[in-house]
């Protein structure tokens, strides 16, 4: 249906949709309301492209397509559309300009109720555009229109939509299938869209329920819709087959269900074909490339790990972990956007963090970029906040297992972002720590971890303690077989001159009280006895001055330390692959854990 667009163009529409997944579990891929310059979407592709775009024209300004997607599968440029069940506004691209988990505001509150798009139940949607805002509202059929829209997005659509534009819907299926129904629709370019007579609308046919008896008009409508659906399906199957044939990525079944999987093609393009000049870090069996995703223009860091022995079993477990870790969100963590597997290469995609690692800022600073005390203290607080989130604030306990300066990245605002969760394992809250191989980096491994291989939140705290001393002193945790940072700081402390360990690059702008606090806290955290180490929550309180750091009187307990260090250095060398110490990784799993067949 063509609609005429004057200079101050506006529209309002409401419709009732229902998405019924195929009997075998979750369906796909969703439907979209569209404004488009033509009734045809030439070359459009199914699945995530929803029958609107294809990989070639996706993102092109010449599309002149505005769409509101009701998406039931996450996966297209996975990082962007993070929630499978979401509503988004798309302009010329499958990458939503804005997207929200499907939900509605409960009237007169700020509370939201989630709405499962593919429940098979009828959902009413409103899309309103007044020349300044696009508002999208959804709710179940049995309640009144919420007064607050789910999405209220300020935009002038005039530059994007052509003078004559068609209004309609597109839906797609693929490996996953659903039936997508529009059960009623009204549209107006002039004021509010006419109210739908809800009682006159059909139900969406469902497999289980017996069909209620419809009158002839409704049967006609369903028949028409079914025909359209069948036709669409036919076309889509052709697309799918076509795609299958030309696709170079042969995916295994399990890979298709992973929302965080990226296309190899996109990563190849993003990194200019994994060009040497794009490398920003190397370590172990991995190289980290800077990339710009062709579809969205976002900067990412792509870690490419070349496996020597690949094990699909291990990879599956690993991917399950990524799917989980991909949901971690905190301002002091590097977000793992997704992954991709290509033959023996495993690729991990992270946020690109411009200032590199804390390690390089401490030990290899560029001219004029020596960290001052304000910055260091802020970085310390950031790392603590990130670890607190991993240990206590997320739904599972995440033990990082490789806290060290090269795994702390510094963003444009000089805030710390903790990366490299590859060594992390997930534990359910309250269960015992599992015994696993010792992983970690020399100098940061807690004595009990070296002894019994039990990584815990407390061994993370140990590593954090060492990191604190490192940040203040500007010295590496282990410099040679005879220099151990923790011992060295204790020595100065026992002489009553702990401030002498301060980095000589730090100038007089230091806040002595804070420096002292951090040093003593570092010693507390890296205490050989786990029970003496504080929790991350406590640590954050100490750093904020909310609680007083108790003094440790009993430094004697450190006496056995020489034996201990010697012992765990031995443990390390028996795991010869665990030598990521010098790596300047930008996050991601270390090759170690891959090679162990995780
Ligand atoms: C969109 O929502 C905002 C915020 O609720 C409201 O102020 C505005 O009037 C709405 N615009 C339209 C076109 O409905």
TrEMBL record:
UniProt keyword terms in alphabetical order: ATP-binding, Kinase, Lectin, Membrane, Nucleotide-binding, Receptor, Signal, Transferase, Transmembrane, Transmembrane helix
Spans through the membrane: 218-242
Membrane topology: Single-pass type I membrane protein
Domain of life of the source: Eukaryota
Binding site for ATP: 304
Keyword Cell cycle: no
CDD domains registered for this protein in UniProt: lectin_legume_LecRK_Arcelin_ConA (cd06899), STKc_IRAK (cd14066)
Family, similarity comment: In the C-terminal section; belongs to the protein kinase superfamily. Ser/Thr protein kinase family. In the N-terminal section; belongs to the leguminous lectin family.
Protein name: Protein kinase domain-containing protein
């Amino acid at each position: 249906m063509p609609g005429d667009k004057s200079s101050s163009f506006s529209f309002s529409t409401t419709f009732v949709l229902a998405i019924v997944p195929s009997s075998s579990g979750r369906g796909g891929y969703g439907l979209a309301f569209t404004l488009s310059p033509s009734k045809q979407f030439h070359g459009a592709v199914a699945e995530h492209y929803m029958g609107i775009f294809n990989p070639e024209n996706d993102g092109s300004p010449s599309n002149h397509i505005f769409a509101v997607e009701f998406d039931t599968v996450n996966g297209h440029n996975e990082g962007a559309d993070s929630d499978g069940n979401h509503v988004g506004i798309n302009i010329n691209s499958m990458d939503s300009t804005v997207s929200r988990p499907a939900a509605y505001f409960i009237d007169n509150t700020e509370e939201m109720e989630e709405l499962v798009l593919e429940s098979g139940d009828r959902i009413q949607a409103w899309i309103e555009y007044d020349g300044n805002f696009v508002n999208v509202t959804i709710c179940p059929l049995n309640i009144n229109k919420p007064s607050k829209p789910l999405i209220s997005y300020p935009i002038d659509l005039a530059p994007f939509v052509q003078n004559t534009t068609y209004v309609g819907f597109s839906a797609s299926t693929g490996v996953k299938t659903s039936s997508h129904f529009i059960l009623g629709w009204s549209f107006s370019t002039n004021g509010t869209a006419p109210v739908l007579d809800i009682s006159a609308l059909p139900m969406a046919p469902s497999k289980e329920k017996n069909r209620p008896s419809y009158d002839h008009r409704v049967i006609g409508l369903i028949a028409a819709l079914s025909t359209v659906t069948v036709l669409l399906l036919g076309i889509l199957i052709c697309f799918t087959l076509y795609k299958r044939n030309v696709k170079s990525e042969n995916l295994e079944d399990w890979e298709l269900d992973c929302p965080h999987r990226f296309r190899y093609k996109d990563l190849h393009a993003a990194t200019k074909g994994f060009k040497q000049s794009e490398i920003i870090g190397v370590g172990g069996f991995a190289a980290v490339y800077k990339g710009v995703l062709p579809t969205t223009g976002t900067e990412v860091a792509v870690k490419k790990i070349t496996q020597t022995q690949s094990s699909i079993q291990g990879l599956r477990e690993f991917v399950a972990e990524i799917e989980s870790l991909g949901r971690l969100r905190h301002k002091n963590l590097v977000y793992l956007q997704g992954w991709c597997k290509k033959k023996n290469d495993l690729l991990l995609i992270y946020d690109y963090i411009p200032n590199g690692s804390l390690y390089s800022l401490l030990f290899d600073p560029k001219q004029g970029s020596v960290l001052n005390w304000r910055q260091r203290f802020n970085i310390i607080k950031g790392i603590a906040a990130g670890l607190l989130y991993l240990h206590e604030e997320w739904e599972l306990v995440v033990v990082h297992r490789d806290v060290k300066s090269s795994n702390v990245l510094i963003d444009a605002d000089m805030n710390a972002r903790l990366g490299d969760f590859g060594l992390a394992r997930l534990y359910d809250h309250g269960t015992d720590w599992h015994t696993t191989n010792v992983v970690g980096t020399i100098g940061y491994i807690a004595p009990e971890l070296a002894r019994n291989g039990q990584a815990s939140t407390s061994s993370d705290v140990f590593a954090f303690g060492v990191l604190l001393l490192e940040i203040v002193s500007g010295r590496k945790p282990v410099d040679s077989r005879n220099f151990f940072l923790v011992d060295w700081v204790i020595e100065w402390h026992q002489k009553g001159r702990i401030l002498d360990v301060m980095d000589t690059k730090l100038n007089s702008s230091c806040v002595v009280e804070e420096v002292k606090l951090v040093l003593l806290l570092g010693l507390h955290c890296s205490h050989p006895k786990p029970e003496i180490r504080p929790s991350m929550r406590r640590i954050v309180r100490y750093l904020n001055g909310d609680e007083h750091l108790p003094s440790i009187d009993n430094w004697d307990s450190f006496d056995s330390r020489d034996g201990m260090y010697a012992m765990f250095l031995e443990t390390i060398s028996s795991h010869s692959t665990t030598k990521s110490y010098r790596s300047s990784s930008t996050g991601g799993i270390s090759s170690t854990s891959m090679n162990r067949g995780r």
